[in-house]
Structure formats: C-alpha cells, structure tokens
Design goal:
41% of the residues lie in helices and 10% in strands. The chain is built from 10 helices and 8 strands. It has a 4-stranded parallel beta sheet, sandwiched between helices. The protein has a 4-stranded parallel beta sheet with strand order 6-5-7-8, with helices on both faces. The N and C termini lie far apart (54 Å).
C-alpha cells in the first residue's frame, strides 16, 4: 500500500512513518507492496516504537540489521530503493549521517524525525567515536563553538514517552479507522515507560556513588534524569586503547568518586573498557545503549534490556 500517494494531511502522514516501522521486526523484507502501512525505520529504537504503537496495522523494514553498529551504517543501493518504495520513513536525525542523507534524497512522504517530538540537549561531553560523525551529527543544530546535540533520547524513559505520545497522535490522524487502537497502544506504552522511569528513580535514589564510566557517551540523558554523572573514555574510538595520561586521570577520579566499574556495550569491541579496567583496578560490565538487539543482549526487547541496565547500574553505584 503506497500511503504517501493518498491525500492525507502532513501530520497524519507523520504518523504513518512510525506505524509502518513496527510490524516487521527488522527482518529485512522489502518495503512497500503490502496492505498495511509500509514504513522504513532507521534502527532498533525507532522500530520498537512503531511496533508498539502500530501493532497489527503496520509493516516495517529496518535499515540497521541486528548486530550492526548504527553509527557505522552505510546505505546500500537496495536500501535506497526500499526508501523510494516506502509509504513513510521513521528516523532520528543526527544519529546516522548516511541515513539523514538518504532520507533527504528519497521521494517518500512523510519523513518522520523522532528527534522533533522531544527536546534534544547539549551534554557537552558527548564524543563521536566514529570518524566522520563529528562533521555531520548536529551540524545544523550547533552554533560555532558548541557541541552537537545529543541524539540518544531513547535511553531516557521520559523522553522516549514524549516521542511515543507524538507518534501516537500522528498515527491517529494518519489512519483514523484505527485511531482507537493507536490511542490504546500509545497509552499502554507510555504507562510502561512511566513505570520504568519509576523503577530507575527508586533504584538509583540512594547510591554510594553517582559516577559511572563508559566507553560510549550515550547515557547523558539517563544520567541527567537520575542525578548521575557519565564519564566517557572521551576522544578514543572503540578499537583504540586509552593513553597513559587518560588512565591516570580516570584512576584518580575512580578513587575520588568511588567508581567500581567501567561499562562497555554489546555492538563494539570491549578492548578499551577491559584495558582501563585492568590498569585502573575496576571491574567491567555491560551497559547497553540499546542501538540494536542481538543474541548477546541481556533481554529480548527495550524494556528487558533497560531493566538489565538498571540492575548493572545499581550494582556498580552501590545502591542501598
């Protein structure tokens, strides 16, 4: 079904992009040609959002396959063709430069930017590990001398719920025949996200330390929401090792702030984190930025992995 050829208001079309994203679960099937809303999603958090809200009424193709590091994604000719055939596209601007470029060139309507449904922030310490990101991400949002805005909003359940509400409203306008389902699905999703927020709030309220180390500066929103401080191994790619000076600096901070753990993630090498852990006397553990679900993930979906993250943070920070 080529929804974009129907005369639907722009806001309604926005909804379609998200709806379609969900139902396909990233199985790589070609977009278009179904009797549902056909949506291309940029990566897992967008796919999951649309699946939860769209339910049985959408069909989705995911550009970033399970196990693929989203920042490294290069759009193939086949994927470009899928974008052209889609009824809608759902993405998060300034996270994947090649997706932004492909979406800008694609003849698809609507093009739904989830970042427009909540407020992005400048966390300052966000470093882009992958060569090429610095010149693209947040470029049009940041003034000279400022940091790009942090795109990792899905790791804050409150901001993710804000996006969900915007998507739900767009779905209702785009497909009024199924508005009641979209409304109910959105309310259920927001309710679960509110419950997750309460679990994080309660679990991290009383901790021995408020500082955690990670090799990927993806947790700025989460840290800010729950009164924590994220310390990334900044300026170092996932494949490189920290300098002796950086090791010494982090060793001092670990002692001063009671840091016990350096976190790594599932989709990139753990070598940097393990090197730091060995040299600084810290243990290592996984804190998953939820950019994709694989058989190595500590859970099958967003909620399960986020609860695993909460458990890891409680242990590392000495929750009381």
């Amino acid at each position: 079904m080529n929804i974009r050829r129907r005369l639907i208001p722009t806001a309604a079309l926005a909804a379609l992009s998200l709806t379609a994203v969900s139902a396909c679960s990233g199985d790589g099937a070609a977009a278009g040609g179904t009797d549902k809303f056909d949506v291309v999603a940029s990566f897992y958090p967008m796919q999951f959002l649309a699946e939860q809200i769209g339910g049985e009424h959408v069909d989705v193709t995911t550009l970033t396959e399970p196990g693929q590091e989203p920042h490294d994604l290069e759009i193939s000719a086949k994927q470009t063709a899928q974008l052209q055939e889609a009824d809608a596209v759902l993405y998060l601007k300034d996270l994947q430069p090649t997706v932004d470029e492909a979406v800008a060139q694609a003849d698809v309507d609507p093009k739904i930017d989830a970042a427009s449904l909540t407020a992005l922030e400048d966390h300052g310490d966000v470093e882009h590990e992958h060569e090429g990101e610095q010149g693209h991400e947040g470029e049009e949002h940041a003034e000279e001398g400022e940091h790009p805005l942090d795109p990792h909003v899905w790791l804050d359940p409150v901001k993710y719920a804000e996006i969900a509400e915007g998507v739900g409203a767009a779905f209702e306008k785009a497909d009024p025949d199924h508005a009641a389902d979209y409304k109910a699905n959105t309310e259920a999703l927001v309710g679960k996200l509110n419950s997750l927020d309460a679990k994080f709030e309660d679990g991290l309220r009383n901790t021995r330390s408020k500082v955690f180390f990670t090799n990927h500066a993806a947790f700025g929103y989460l840290a800010e929401r729950y009164g924590l401080t994220q310390e990334a191994i900044s300026g170092i790619s996932p494949e490189s090792e920290p300098s002796p000076a950086r090791i010494k600096e982090l060793q001092s901070e670990a002692k001063a702030d009671g840091v016990t753990t350096v976190f790594y993630e599932t989709l990139v090498s753990d070598r940097t984190a393990r090197t730091l852990g060995k040299d600084a006397g810290l243990r290592t553990d996984v804190l998953d930025p939820l950019e994709g679900i694989t058989d190595k993930s500590k859970g099958d979906d967003y909620f399960q992995v986020m609860e695993s993250n909460l458990g890891a943070l409680k242990t590392a920070l000495g929750a009381k």
